[in-house]
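Anyone have tokens for tRNA N6-adenosine threonylcarbamoyltransferase? Sequence:
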Amino acid sequence: MLVLGLETSCDETGVALYDSERGLLADALFSQIDLHRAYGGVVPELASRDHVKRMLPLIRQVLDDAGCVATDIDAIAYTAGPGLVGALLVGASCAQALAFAWDIPAIGVHHMEGHLLAPMLEDAPPAFPFVALLVSGGHTQLVRVDGIGQYQLLGESLDDAAGEAFDKTAKLMGLRYPGGPEIARLAERGTPGRFVFPRPMTDRPGLDFSFSGLKTFTLNTWQQCQNSGDDSEQSRCDVALAFQQAVVETLTIKCRRALKQTGLNSLVIAGGVSANRALRTSLEDMTAALKGKVFYARPAFCTDNGAMIAYAGCQRLLAGQHEDLAITVQARWPMEQLPAL
Ligand SMILES: Nc1ncnc2c1ncn2[C@@H]1O[C@H](COP(=O)(O)OP(=O)(O)OP(=O)(O)O)[C@@H](O)[C@H]1O
Ligand SMILES: [Mg+2]
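Reply: yep, here.
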């Protein structure tokens, strides 16, 4: 089954062609980062308008790259939520219009299920069951995964998501948007041990997270440096490292706790923050000590992309699921509401 995947939940237009027999044939992405950078974050209306401009050229591009024509496509998968409603509607309307014109089925995919399943596109994918840590711009969740659509939420952030904490902290320190890669870049040159920040909510039981206090702690430390006349690049790197280490260690402690609690030893990490190298190394060390393994996608498939939507949609289509012609999207959509395969 050849599936066209469309992703438009936020500020990336992602398109891909995934074949259930041959794997991923092509994927293309247009990132709107430059468009939103001047505003320090995503402007929803600008995002929607840009998706409209990019979608059809990207579909033509993936067809060319894969050496396919429109009539080869068996079904269309699109992100139906959660995300920005206007942006989601662009992908949903486009998918439903093409599905109607080509007389093929369409399926609305849950964006976080897409992220969660992205590591399945790599060689040596994880086997069910496993614990998944979803760490993106809008979500920080620990989920027990027993199969596609069999999700049990174990814990989540009570305030900022991990990616959001990276982005907001970077903004407070005068860094560019998106802040995750910027902080990671500075942290590489940081002096270990100069600053040590708290590991929020690790001193009590449970699997929930809270990152908003860490953001304030980081700002206060950076302002103390500046007030004492030290706004050097080295101090910025040292603060960035202390922040990153606090996030990484907090996530590692909670992942270890989730693995112990469930008795599992496979951990999947997904979403933009799973591209962070310090996080990957820390989780690799932690899972190795438990004789387990951590799985993640290539960096391009950690952040938003069409390939994960094509893959997730394909699994559900193969199980016989699809939508009727209605265009429905959901800004908020708990993943546990998804039907099991
Ligand atoms: N190397 C990195 N280190 C830390 N954070 C990173 C890194 N690369 C990307 N990020 C963060 O990942 C986030 C983007 O990830 P993603 O595209 O998965 O999120 P989103 O789609 O905006 O949110 P959601 O998927 O929850 O709707 C941003 O917050 C960005 O700062
Ligand atoms: Mg995302």
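The chain has a mean pLDDT of 97.
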